[in-house]
Amino acid sequence: MNTILHNWNEVLKDMSNQVTAVSYDLYIETLEPIKVEKNKLILFASTLTNKNQLLKLHKDKLLSSVKEHFENVDDIIILEPSEREKYFEDIKRAEEEIETQQVLNDKNKLNEKYTFESFVVGKSNQFVYAAARSVAENPGKKYNPLFIYGGVGLGKTHILHAIGNYIRKNYPEMRILYVTSEQFTNDYIQALKADKKENANKAFRDKYREVDILMIDDIQFISNKTSTQEEFFHTFNDLYQLDKQIVITSDKHPRNMETLEERLKSRFTGGLIQDIQKPDFETRLAILQKKVEAENYNIDSEVLTFLAEKIDTNIRELEGSLNKVISLSSLIGKPKATMVEAEEALKDIELTQKQNLTIEKIIDVVCKYFNIKRDDLIGKKKNKEIVIPRHICMYAITELLDLPLITIGKAFGGKDHSSVIHARDKISKLMLTNKSLRTDVEDLIAMIRSEN
Ligand code: ADP
Ligand code: MG
After folding, report:
1. Is residue 246 helix, strand or coil?
2. In the chain, what are the domains?
3. Using CA atoms, how far apart are residues 353 and 301, in angstroms rounded to an integer?
4. C-alpha–C-alpha distance, residues 183 and 139, integer Å
5. Which of 39, 104, 165, 314 is positioned for an S-S bond with 153, CB 3.0–4.6 A?
6. What is the CA(201)–ligand 2 centre distance, in A?
7. Strand pairing of 75-79 and 245-250?
8. pLDDT by residue for the chain (452 residues), tens digit each?
9. pTM > 0.85: yes or no
10. Residue 90 C-alpha to ligand 2 middle, in angstroms?
11. Coil, strand or helix at 383
12. Which of 124, 143, 139 is nearest to 272 (CA)?
């Protein structure tokens, strides 16, 4: 028996000797011990009246018995049903916050798989590879800053992590900071919001100025508020003057980034700006082969050629198609993946690609499906008739489109990326247990795919 229940049974025995049978049945036996938190035993009472009566009549007796039988407990907290509900909500909220934070932290950690060794070099990325390598070998000395730009899924994040992993291994004394620009913005906003300004500012500066290598991923998402960019400008200058290495990625050349301040553009132009292109067929094939080797997949080689020919958009989709083939074949228990699964996998992918799907189109379909108004869906209403479709909509967008979370958040009245993460994870979790929800979501996604 667990110790709480065991100890509680002792308390019950005690109390049955100290109070009348009626009192015992009504107020004591109906209590439910939940847990010990910060030296307090938390108990649920079945009604508000029971709680009040108990406190009025027997609190002292109960407390002294509890103290006797529970080590390290010096008080009791009794929650009646409405408090109990709030108690569970609070726990849930705290758990969700932790989960969200974990997702964010993971995003801001170096991924050990993204190395120079696992990066396939071809015509499309040989210059970026050379520049990154040279920066990793001579941090702060060669190209500063190194600015890498290119479309989604072409390997910017991978090469950035490769620099970080290389430096970590070969210059272990160097302090490396890898963050997304969203994280930079968040940290800065937190520092502004904090009660104890000085401490918060110091923490922020310690984090960003006390590093040897600063890597900012997706600078295009840095808040366009001048104060954030100003802080970034100062961070940049401080590090730059100390010959600390700065590496930045973006989806565009700095000159084409509308929301970026001129003086930042000019700083970026002071180093090396290198683009990363779409891979050619040979590189695509080599990437697939490398992945198959790394993961030990069993797959017909003609499938790889087929995928490399068909998927020329970006490397993320290329990898996605390979994963799809592998999961289709393991689903039907085939030891080796063949063209049959490849054809099947491609059908899905082509359908999504053909359509030029946009957030707007997905929102339209979701509104139609649930018969709600667009303004409600993207607005702030909190009733569940709206919130659930809203979360499903966010989930569908993350499934169907390869867009930054912050962009998705913006389409929903300027929500931040953690709201999108929350919605997406909530729906994917619910789909595991709730069959009717899963059917709804699957229907909806099929509908979005076929709507055109
Ligand atoms: P981006 O940051 O440009 O959107 P990523 O760096 O996230 O793209 O790359 C998307 C996926 O493609 C990752 O899984 C990455 O490992 C893989 N990838 C990209 N370029 C290469 C490459 N040259 N060799 C091997 N894998 C690559
Ligand atoms: Mg990236």
Report:
1. strand
2. 3-86 (3.30.300.180), 126-276 (3.40.50.300), 281-356 (1.10.8.60), 359-451 (1.10.1750.10)
3. 24
4. 23
5. 314
6. 28
7. unpaired
8. 578 889 999 999 999 999 999 999 999 999 999 889 889 999 999 999 999 999 999 999 999 999 999 988 999 999 999 998 888 888 888 777 776 666 555 666 899 999 999 999 999 999 999 999 999 999 999 999 999 999 989 999 999 999 999 999 999 999 999 998 988 988 888 888 876 767 777 888 888 988 999 999 999 888 778 889 999 999 999 999 999 999 999 999 999 888 888 999 999 999 999 999 999 999 999 999 999 999 999 999 999 999 999 998 899 989 999 999 998 898 888 889 999 999 988 887 776 665 678 899 999 999 998 889 999 999 999 988 899 999 999 999 998 887 888 889 999 998 988 899 999 989 988 888 888 888 888 888 888 877 65
9. no
10. 34
11. coil
12. 143
Place of tokens 């010959």: 243
**Residue having the nearest C-alpha atom to atom 18 of ligand 1:** 155
User: Measured in angstroms, how far is the CA atom of residue 156 from the centroid of ligand 2?
Assistant: 5
**Ligand 1 shell residues, CB under 6 Å:** 114, 118-120, 125, 152-158, 287, 315-316, 319
